[in-house]
Amino acid sequence: MTTRSILVPLLLIAAAASVIWPLVQPMNGYLLNLFMQAATYAMAVLGLTVVLGYAGQISIAQAAFFGLGAYGVAIGTTMLHLPFMLALLLGVAVAAVFGAILGASTLKLGGHYLAMVTISFQQILTLVLTNWIGLTNGPDGIRNIPRPALFGISWQDSDRYLALCLVVLYAVGTFVWWLKGTKLGLGMQAVRDNELAAEVVGVDTYRVKVTAFCLSALLGGLGGGLFAGGFGYISPDQFSFGESVVFLTMVLLGGADAAVGSAVGTALLILLPEWLRFLRGAYLAVYGLAVILIMVFMPTGLWGVLSRLFGPPKRRDHGVVEALSLGDPDGEDGDLLLEIKGLAKHFGGLKALDGVDIAVERGKVHALIGPNGSGKTTMLNVLSGIYRPTRGEVRVDGVKVSGLPPHEIAAAGVGRTFQNIRLFHSLTVFENVVIGAQRPRNPAAATPDQARRRALAALEFVGMAGRADIKVASLPYGHQRLVEIARALAGNPTLLLLDEPAAGLNLTEKQELVGLLKRLAHHGLTLFLIDHDMNLVEQMADRITVLNFGKRIAEGTPAEVLRHPDVIAAYLGEVPDHAAA
Ligand SMILES: Nc1ncnc2c1ncn2[C@@H]1O[C@H](COP(=O)(O)OP(=O)(O)OP(=O)(O)O)[C@@H](O)[C@H]1O
User: In testing the pocket of ligand 1, which one of 343, 374, 388 has its CB within 8 Å of the most ligand atoms?
Assistant: First the structure.
């Protein structure tokens, strides 16, 4: 029996006991307040687990959303005379709508914009709560907020109301814990670990970030609404910038990427001031020092450290490994799969691609070569949607994809790997590949179960199924390269773009890679690859296109191209006679 298998029932028993306890043994007012605050705060902190822990987006306005929920309940019950549950719904909806507007308007920008905007929003909300006296009663706050009558039971009694809050908290905690393993949750973690790679494997990163932010605001609103009912009185100072920092500290202290971490962090930051009260004047300094020390020495939070003590998670039984279906069963070999016409990409005055035409037949291996800086990676970035072309058109299977965002190009069946491997480093090998399998419109993975089976089949194909439950960051470089290829294959691409797949591999690894690529070609998958290793290119390619200074200078079979005088000149840095003439 593992420590983990003991821990889960223990947590369940503790949760059930904490709900039953206030019902059978009334608590004194001090303890009730402490527990009420912890339970409602923990809901808001769980919201931060979603937005910060899972999706990696910094929000410093959780107290504002908590306040919106609280004022929703306060105004709804005392001024609009709505039933408590309707007022709670109102508060939660207002918080979620503000979350959606704020997220949708800032998350396109990326970087630290969200943090900056949330700080401003937090400050503005505090000002509105303080100064819009007609609605909020200003600094005096709102009193006599009632509690609900639900299921024919009155929850006026504080012990009962606490039990209700705890039930809601555990439901929220279970939801947040469950969310982590869902398609959406894995998408959030992919965004957090590597946003560009997430887009390229088909995650609509903008939608995922806005959803995470909106969910976080909603949970903040829910916590705030129940807080208002719990204390019966609210005022603007309870929802200030300082409180947002407290929420943020709670989630970081507990461990941002686990639901249990939020509970641990909240409990600690609410209890710590009580435990340190005997220090009187020195209390704040010791409190601050304790928080700083925990953060410095436990960057993954208290739960991160504790969960490591329980040992690595059990290896999961992923079931029977299926054979990986590859290629396009509906397509005819020899059809044009990829058509690139007059493609140009300019960076200011630099013409990285300058009117390139390439046609790739279905089921063939097409290589793109050229000296350094000739535009190869730019071509792959345009094909996968990372760059919008300046001019020209790209069609895959007859469908125009140029100008689409990367996740839509992935959905059209274009997979890719990167020269500098881009994996989701904090996830396991299996999770990385499942995210690949979950790309939109993947015919081989319509359900979560099919996606898992597809991921396992892809891992088996590249020889990594035995390492499925290992954290990808702990793998050697060559294996990480294989996982990246498996992630692309799991998405069932009709066209696979490989950006220097042999880069950084030793000789043995290169030979294994050639074997793998040959198996892919044998299965009829169309490959479009860049590599500097001419040996690999010659072994693999049916046709080669050569770029120089963003222009196509040659195309043909390997034998034709590698003898071409312009190609030899481009690689040797000479100007061919006819060009000089
Ligand atoms: N984002 C960018 N902004 C400005 N210039 C860029 C950008 N990306 C690429 N370039 C320029 O475009 C040209 C082509 O670069 P690219 O990386 O596509 O070449 P490459 O053939 O892949 O080179 P290598 O073989 O060294 O990887 C280079 O001059 C490069 O400096």
Answer: 374
Residue 465 belongs to domain spanning: 365-387+414-546+553-580
Tokens of 403: 């100008």
pLDDT of residue 91: 96
What pLDDT sits at residue 309? Answer: 76
Question: Does ipTM exceed 0.90?
Answer: yes
* 307 assigned to some structural domain: no
Report which of 473, 440, 459 is spatially closest to residue 184, judged by C-alpha positions. Answer: 440
Which residues of the chain fall short of a pLDDT of 70? 1-4, 111, 280, 283, 311-315, 320, 327-334, 572-581
How far does the centroid of ligand 1 lie from the alpha carbon of residue 378, in Å?
6
Identify whether 20 is part of a domain: no
Kindly write down the DSSP assignment for every residue of 367-391, as one continuous string.
EEE-STTSSHHHHHHHHTTSS--SE
pLDDT of residue 285: 79
Three-state SS for 297-343 is: HCCCHHHHHHHHHCCCCCCCCCCCCCCCCCCCCCCCCCCEEEEEEEE
* pLDDT for position 313: 65
> The tokens 């709560």 sit on which residue?
129
Contact 190, 435 (CB under 8 A): yes
Q: How far apart are CA 88 and CA 74, in angstroms?
A: 9
| Token output for 93 | 């909806």
The C-alpha atoms of residue 10 and residue 28 are separated, in whole angstroms, by 26
Count CA within 13 A, CB hemisphere, residue 529: 29
**Residue 368: strand pairing partners:** 530, 545
End-to-end CA distance of the chain: 81
Q: For residue 270, what pLDDT is reported? A: 86
244, 264, 294: which is the final residue of a domain? 244
Is residue 56, in this structure, part of any structural domain at all? yes
Looking at the structure of the chain, the number of domains it has is 2
Which residue's CA is the closest to the ligand 1 atom numbered 24? 372
* Ligand 1 contact via 565 beta carbon (within 6 Å): no
- Eight-class DSSP state of 492: -
Ligand 1 pocket, residue 53 CB under 6 Å: no
pLDDT digits (tens, 9 = 90+) for 415-453: 999 999 999 999 999 999 999 999 998 888 889 999 999
Which CATH number characterizes residue 512's domain? 3.40.50.300
pLDDT of 580 reads 42
Residue type, 557: T
Residue 79 lies in a domain: yes
Q: Which residue has the tokens 């439950």?
A: 469
For ligand 1, whether the C-beta of 371 sits within 6 Å is: no
Q: Which helix (H) or strand (E) holds 417?
A: strand 414-417
Apex 324 CA angle, 322 and 325, nearest 5: 125
Strands 365-369 and 391-396: unpaired
